[in-house]
C-alpha cells in the first residue's frame, strides 16, 4: 500500500517538474520573441503590432495586474476585455487586419494561431501578419505541454523550424493534414529595405 502511494506520488512529482520545465521554456521563448519584435520595430523606426491583447481572456490577469506580455504600440484582439486601457487597442480579427501594407516594423502574436479553427485560417492570419509588418514573431504552446493537449479551443498544433511555420489540424489522423508556411527571414528583409 505504501509503496503504491510512493510510486503514484513520484510519478505525479515527475510530471509536475516536467510540465514546469515545459512552461518555463514557453515563457522564455515568448519573452525572447517579444524582445526581438521590439528591437526590430525600433530599428525599423516603425510601430510594433501586438496581436492578442496583453490581458487575454482571463479575469485573473486583471485581478493580479499581470499582463501576458507587453502592450506594443498598437494592439488588436477580437475580445474588448483583452484590450482594456490600451490607448491604441483595435478590435479586429487576425485574418483581416485593418492596416495598410507594411504599416508596422514588427508584429508579435502570442498564443493566437492554435485557437483558429483550421490551418487555412492560420495561413490567412500569417499572410495578414506578413502583409502589415516587416517581420513577424509568433509564440505558441509546446506540443509537450499537457495544457496544450487539453484546452478545448486549441484547434491546431503550431511549431517552427527556421523560417517555416508548421500547422497541423488537431484530432485529424487521415491523410496529410500538415501545412507549411514559409516567411522571408527578418534579416533578409532588412537588407532588401536598404
Structure description:
It is a single chain. With 194 residues, this protein is α/β, with parallel strands linked by helices. The chain has one domain: 3-Layer(aba) Sandwich (Rossmann fold), CATH 3.40.50. The chain has 5 helices and 8 strands, in the order H-E-H-E-E-E-H-E-H-E-E-E-H. The strands form 2 sheets. It has a 5-stranded parallel beta sheet. Strands 6-7-8 form a 3-stranded antiparallel beta sheet, with helices on one face. Helix 3 links the parallel strand 4 and strand 5. The longest helix is centred in the first third of the chain and has 43 residues, at 2-44. It is globular and about 65 Å long. Residues 187-194 have low confidence and may be disordered.
Provide a count of the helices. 5
- The tally of domains stands at 1
- What is the overall shape? globular
Going by CATH, the architecture would be: 3-Layer(aba) Sandwich
Strand tally is 8
Amount of beta strand: 15-25%
Top-tier CATH class: Alpha Beta
Structural class: alpha/beta
Side by side, the strands of the main sheet go 3-2-1-4-5
Radius of gyration (Å): 18 Å
